[in-house]
């Protein structure tokens, strides 16, 4: 985030702190329960958002050099992402063109080719079929047409996006709705992957994302944990197309009042939450970045799977650094697992009760309202 924006947002925050206000929408936003409980709606979300939209797969550091690869099955399509010999990221459907076996699992480095575990057909880093055991038995096969099926991939601003269906390229800048320069300013391409945790919970994927989108709950739900660190019920919100930025100020921001504006560093005194539409929550903290990627699970409206990738500015090369980041990651996970997600699972269970026809978002929950509205609008 450029310094002028940091100053502008800090001033805005001081105004709200002094007036005991927060960023407000003009109206309440109702959201029908069917948005979280309708099987028909989930099918549309899967088709439109999780098959035909560019999805963040992670940061560039996860593919550090040619021969690095990772796989990702969360969208419902098994995806293989590779750093090819020319340094470019390539993505493929992770399905062997012989009889459809999954070609590779997990992630790794230093790979020269991928050999299918079933009969050993082998593909190079560009997805080309380069090896067929007992080739004579496949005489007449159009080998060139039997590479791995390629998917559109974009690597920009330190992030990698893939659309899980083949076809035209993904235009990430259009998708980002004007957020690209701000994203670029963080130099995410210099971050290092520390660890990934996978969480499964019994709630709609959007209920999981909602827990990141308002600080109205901080003073109540997080009263004895992270709540006191932040100003409760105070956030700044800005939409960027379907994406958004939410700034959550820490109480320490008051220190900036004694410093010249030229020295103001907003990032050190906030958590900045971005929704990279449709399903990625990027949290920029003072010392690390989190990428939460949230997906429907098992084709159920009430189950989701989240991959939390934790990124740090320098590699953790000593035991003490390793310990520091493990504690930081554990604290992050513990707060959501012990406090936010049990509430989310309760909300999902309550939706079955018939008690409510709709949820209502207050004027003080603008990010939440924008996210839910954007998802609904994208399905039309
Ligand atoms: S299914 Fe892959 S080699 Fe047969
Ligand atoms: Fe929370």
Describe this structure in words.
The chain is of the alpha+beta class. The protein has helices at residues 3-19, 34-37, 39-49, 172-175, 180-185, 205-210, 218-221, 319-351, 366-378; strands spanning 29-32, 55-59, 69-72, 79-83, 89-93, 107-108, 113-115, 122-124, 129-131, 150-151, 153-156, 159-162, 192-201, 236-240, 243-249, 270-276, 280-284, 289-297, 300-312, 358-361. It has 2 domains: 3-52 and 177-378, Naphthalene 1,2-dioxygenase Alpha Subunit, Chain A, domain 1; 55-169, Rieske [2Fe-2S] iron-sulphur domain (Rieske Iron-sulfur Protein, 3-layer Sandwich). A 7-stranded antiparallel β-sheet has the order 13-19-18-17-16-15-14, with helices on both faces.
Listed once per kind, the bound small molecules are: FE2/S2 (inorganic) cluster, fe (ii) ion
Tertiary shape = globular
In the CATH hierarchy, the architecture of the largest domain is Alpha-Beta Complex
Q: How big is the Rg?
A: 22 Å
Give, in spatial order, the strands making up the sheet with the most strands. Answer: 13-19-18-17-16-15-14
- The CATH homologous superfamily of the largest domain is termed Naphthalene 1,2-dioxygenase Alpha Subunit, Chain A, domain 1
Estimate the helix proportion, in percent: 25-40%
Secondary structure: number of strands:
20
């Amino acid at each position: 985030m450029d310094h002028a924006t940091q100053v502008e947002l800090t001033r805005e925050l001081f105004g709200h702190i002094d007036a005991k206000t927060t960023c407000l929408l003009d109206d309440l936003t109702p959201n029908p329960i069917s948005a979280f409980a309708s099987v028909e709606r989930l099918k549309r979300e899967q088709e439109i958002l999780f098959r035909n939209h560019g999805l963040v797969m992670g940061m560039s550091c996860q593919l550090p050099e040619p021969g690095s690869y990772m796989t990702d099955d969360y969208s419902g399509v098994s995806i293989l992402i590779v750093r090819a010999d020319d340094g470019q990221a390539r993505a493929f459907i992770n399905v062997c063109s012989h009889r459809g076996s999954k070609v590779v699992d997990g992630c790794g480095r230093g790979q020269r080719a991928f050999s299918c575990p079933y009969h050993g057909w082998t593909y190079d880093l560009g997805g080309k079929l380069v090896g067929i055991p007992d080739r004579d038995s496949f005489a007449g096969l159009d080998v060139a047409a039997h590479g791995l099926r390629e998917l559109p991939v974009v690597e920009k601003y330190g992030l990698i996006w893939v659309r899980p269906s083949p076809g035209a390229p993904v235009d990430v800048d259009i998708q980002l709705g004007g957020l690209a320069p701000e994203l670029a300013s963080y130099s995410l391409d210099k971050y290092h992957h520390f660890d990934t945790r996978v969480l499964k919970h019994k709630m709609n994927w959007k209920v999981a994302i909602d827990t990141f989108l308002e600080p109205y709950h901080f003073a109540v739900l997080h009263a004895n944990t992270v709540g006191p660190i932040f100003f409760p019920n105070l956030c700044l919100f800005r939409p960027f197309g379907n994406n958004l930025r939410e700034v959550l100020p820490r109480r320490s921001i008051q220190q900036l009042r004694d410093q010249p504006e030229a020295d103001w560093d907003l990032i050190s005194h906030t958590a900045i939450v971005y929704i990279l539409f449709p399903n990625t929550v990027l949290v920029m903290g003072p010392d690390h970045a989190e990428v939460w990627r949230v997906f429907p699970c098992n084709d159920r409206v009430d189950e989701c799977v989240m991959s939390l990738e934790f990124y740090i500015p320098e590699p953790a090369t000593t035991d003490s650094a390793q310990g520091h980041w493990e504690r930081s990651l554990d604290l992050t996970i513990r707060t959501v697992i012990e406090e936010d997600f049990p509430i989310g699972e309760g909300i999902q269970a309550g939706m079955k009760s018939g008690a409510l026809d709709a949820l209502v978002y207050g004027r003080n929950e603008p990010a939440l309202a924008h996210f839910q509205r954007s998802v609904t609008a994208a399905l039309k």
